[in-house]
């Protein structure tokens, strides 16, 4: 993969995107929860666009606001104690201000969601068949026979053997992977234009993970459906997303077409996430690279860059001034950093921190567990 | 390891049709684990459970088919045998006026069970609907309903039921049907907050589950979610409390009878049988203890059986839930 080819790939994705007709357009979306301690901002000024048939991967660690983001876009959060701000446009229509009853014409038919845990996202006392046909009756006005046939076809298409028998079984009679297939079948039942997959494989076995992800990808291709794939695993989105947005503390800190992101990442947090993936070629018992510390308090986040307290590159400026989301030299690649990775400024910053003995810098370079523990204590 | 592998491969051969010459691939040569005996035992009702179930079926059957049974009318008097103890023709003896106690207990079951089942159904519907609404929608409505429930629970049930009957059906000449109707209404009202609170608690837990959010994300309306997703899950809790509730109401009806506002004594009920028979205990000569003991034992066994079955029902559904 030469740099030239990579560049070509990027320009193709950019030019293929018609400026007028985005499927989903999120502008400055913020979502906060009222807590006894104050407003916890789980999603902070997030903007992106998604086109038909494309996949956006949203990556971040626990508590980075990625699940809240997808629920906020769909309008599934409770109205009480939630403050939502910004604009969500679906096929050009503003939907962020719609009431629940108005949203019902989008839920299921236009946008659907696959949840994290198939153990809890299926109703334990209803047969699988009824759970699938429910929305077919409701949204598509199918009669009993049509709905049954459609449900059967759906189950077959998500790769469930003996589909006819499974229709009259209860969720507890199915394995975890099978249940997630059923959840996917339910979500796809009414042919949504965009599918939110909220960590669809987190609760599953690694061997089943790949199957489910392949299934999602195959269904997406067949249906020309857009997908937002939320995950904490960069590896999951690496081969499957057209574009990746990295979230930290409710903000998108880096967003780029997949290839660009992996080739020219600018954000130290993205670099940290990538480095923390265990590598097969490493000898056994070698220490895993970690990002020391914890995500910041959402009620009282640090004043500057949210990642600064854990960042190996952090300088004085990072702690006091929040960097803006700027476009890199590659179009469509945005990042939010004063001292980006892979630039001279970043290199100098890291060297300065190493010389000063900043624990997170030492941890990042040497994989030193003691240094990482020091970060943990300091944050 | 080759020996067990070959053995199980041989064993697997007749079960799975394999092409000739192809050795079936056996990955796990361990024999299938048999389910442990203890696990099976907890799912069974046990001998006590069966006795309880048979008793309940018998007593409900006798109550429903009382007019068809070959027993004397409850008001028929056998003056010659008045006050006598159990005998072949009258297995539970006779009361002071010569009425057959066996017949009176069975006809009494009719009135007692009718009142208790009807009032629990009343409470189940009322409490169930209010509890589901409070637990699902939460917010101000829930606060208000919980407040009302708690207020009602603060008043002793017997006093509240007594007060309602005293207002609407306390005249001495009241008809049996009218008295029974108001008994059902008053006891039903009393049981609404109890069932309502249990339904609300269960609804609160179930409506936080992800499948409710999943149903919402598929565009289901709130009413539909409550009926299709929440209610079937809350039902076991409601039914086990309803079984216990029938037992409580049988006793409550007895209490009301003793206070003179139960089923009128022209129609036997377990409550009024005990109420009219209670002076037998203080008699020194010519006491007929069967008059009070027969209905008392009927109440005792029925309440005990219902309680036991209520527990069995709950345990069964708990097992299913935890297995998930």
Descriptors:
heterodimer, A: 379 residues, alpha/beta, 15 helices, 38% helix, B: 324 residues, disordered N terminus
* Major beta sheet summary of chain B: none
**N to C succession of SSEs of chain B:** HHHHHHHHHHH
Q: Total helix count of chain A?
A: 15
Termini separation of chain B (Å)?
36 Å
Poorly predicted ranges of chain B: 1-20
Helical residue percent of chain B?
Answer: 55-70%
Please name the two chains that share the biggest interface, counting residues whose Cβ lies under 8 Å from a Cβ on the partner chain: A-B, 34 and 22 residues
Strand fraction band of chain B? under 5%
- The chain-level structural class of chain A is alpha/beta
Which range does the strand content of chain A fall in?
A: 15-25%
DSSP E strands of chain B, number:
0
The biggest beta sheet of chain A, please? 8 strands, mixed
Overall number of strands of chain A: 12
Oligomeric composition of the shown chains: heterodimer
Question: Which SSEs are present, and which pair or pack?
Answer:
The complex is a heterodimer of chains A (379) and B (324).
Chain A: H1 3-15, E1 24-35, E2 38-50, E3 55-59, H2 66-74, E4 82-90, E5 93-94, H3 100-103, E6 111-114, H4 128-140, H5 144-157, H6 163-167, H7 176-188, E7 194-198, H8 206-223, E8 226-231, H9 234-238, E9 243-248, E10 251-257, H10 258-263, H11 268-275, H12 316-320, E11 326-327, E12 334-335, H13 344-356, H14 359-366, H15 369-378
Chain B: H1 2-15, H2 37-43, H3 46-64, H4 101-137, H5 139-154, H6 157-168, H7 176-206, H8 210-217, H9 222-258, H10 270-277, H11 290-323
């Amino acid at each position: 993969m030469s740099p030239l080819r990579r560049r070509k790939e990027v320009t193709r994705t950019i030019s293929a995107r018609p400026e007028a007709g985005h499927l989903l357009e999120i502008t400055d979306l913020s979502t906060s929860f009222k807590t006894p301690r104050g407003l916890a901002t789980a999603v902070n000024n997030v903007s992106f666009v998604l086109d038909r048939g494309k996949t956006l991967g949203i990556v971040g660690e626990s508590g980075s606001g990625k699940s809240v983001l997808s629920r906020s876009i769909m309008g599934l959060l409770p109205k009480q104690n939630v403050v939502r701000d910004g604009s969500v446009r679906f096929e050009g229509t503003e939907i962020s201000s719609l009431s629940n009853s108005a949203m019902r014409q989008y839920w299921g038919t236009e946008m659907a969601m696959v949840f994290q845990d198939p153990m809890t996202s299926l109703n334990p006392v209803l047969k699988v068949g009824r759970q699938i046909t429910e929305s077919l009756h409701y949204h598509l006005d199918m009669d009993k026979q049509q709905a049954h046939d459609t449900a059967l076809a759906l189950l077959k298409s998500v790769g469930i053997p003996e589909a006819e028998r499974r229709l009259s079984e209860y969720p507890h009679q199915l394995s975890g992977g099978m249940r997630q297939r059923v959840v996917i079948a339910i979500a796809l039942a009414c042919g949504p234009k965009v599918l939110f997959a909220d960590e669809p494989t987190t609760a599953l076995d690694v061997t089943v993970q790949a199957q489910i992800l392949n299934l999602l990808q195959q269904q997406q291709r067949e249906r020309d459906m857009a997908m937002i794939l939320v995950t904490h695993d960069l590896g999951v989105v690496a081969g499957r997303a057209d574009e990746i947005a990295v979230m930290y503390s409710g903000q998108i800190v880096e967003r780029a077409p997949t290839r660009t992101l992996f080739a020219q990442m600018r954000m130290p947090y993205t670099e940290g996430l990538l480095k923390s993936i265990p590598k097969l070629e490493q000898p056994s018992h070698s220490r895993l690279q970690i990002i020391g510390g914890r995500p910041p308090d959402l009620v009282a986040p640090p004043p500057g860059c949210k990642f600064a307290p854990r960042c190996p590159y952090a300088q004085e400026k990072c702690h006091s001034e929040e960097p803006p989301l700027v476009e890199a030299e590659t179009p469509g690649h945005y990042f939010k950093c004063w001292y980006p990775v892979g630039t001279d400024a970043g290199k100098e910053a890291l060297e300065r921190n190493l010389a000063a003995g900043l624990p997170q810098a030492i941890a990042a370079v040497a994989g030193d567990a003691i240094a990482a523990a020091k970060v943990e204590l300091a944050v | 390891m080759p020996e067990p592998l070959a053995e199980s491969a041989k064993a697997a051969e007749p079960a799975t049709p394999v092409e000739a010459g192809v050795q079936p691939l056996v990955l796990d040569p361990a024999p299938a684990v048999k389910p442990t005996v203890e696990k099976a035992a907890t799912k069974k009702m046990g001998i006590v459970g069966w006795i309880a179930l048979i008793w309940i079926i018998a007593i409900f059957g006798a109550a429903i088919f009382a007019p068809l049974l070959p027993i004397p009318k409850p008001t028929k008097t056998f003056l010659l045998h008045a006050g006598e103890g159990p005998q072949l023709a009258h297995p539970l003896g006779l009361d002071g006026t010569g009425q057959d106690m066996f017949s009176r207990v069975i006809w009494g079951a009719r009135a007692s069970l009718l009142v208790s089942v009807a009032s629990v159904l009343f409470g189940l519907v009322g409490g169930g609907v209010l509890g589901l609404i409070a637990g699902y929608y939460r917010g101000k409505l829930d606060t208000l309903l919980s407040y009302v429930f708690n207020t009602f629970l603060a008043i002793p049930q017997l006093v509240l039921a007594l007060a309602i009957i005293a207002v609407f059906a306390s005249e001495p000449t009241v008809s049996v049907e009218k008295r029974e109707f108001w008994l059902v209404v008053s006891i039903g009202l009393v049981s609404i907050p109890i069932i309502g609170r249990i339904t609300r608690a269960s609804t609160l837990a179930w409506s936080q589950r992800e499948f409710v959010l999943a149903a919402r994300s598929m565009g289901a309306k709130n009413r539909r979610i409550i009926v299709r997703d929440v209610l079937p899950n809350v039902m076991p809790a409601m039914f086990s409390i309803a079984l216990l509730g029938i037992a409580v109401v049988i006793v409550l009806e007895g209490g009301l009878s003793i206070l003179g506002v139960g089923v009128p004594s022209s129609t036997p009920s377990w409550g009024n049988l005990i109420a009219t028979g209670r002076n037998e205990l203080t008699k020194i000569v010519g006491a007929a203890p069967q008059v009070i003991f027969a209905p008392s034992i009927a109440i005792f066994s029925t309440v005990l059986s219902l309680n036991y079955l209520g527990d069995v029902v709950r345990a069964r559904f708990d097992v299913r839930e935890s297995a998930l």
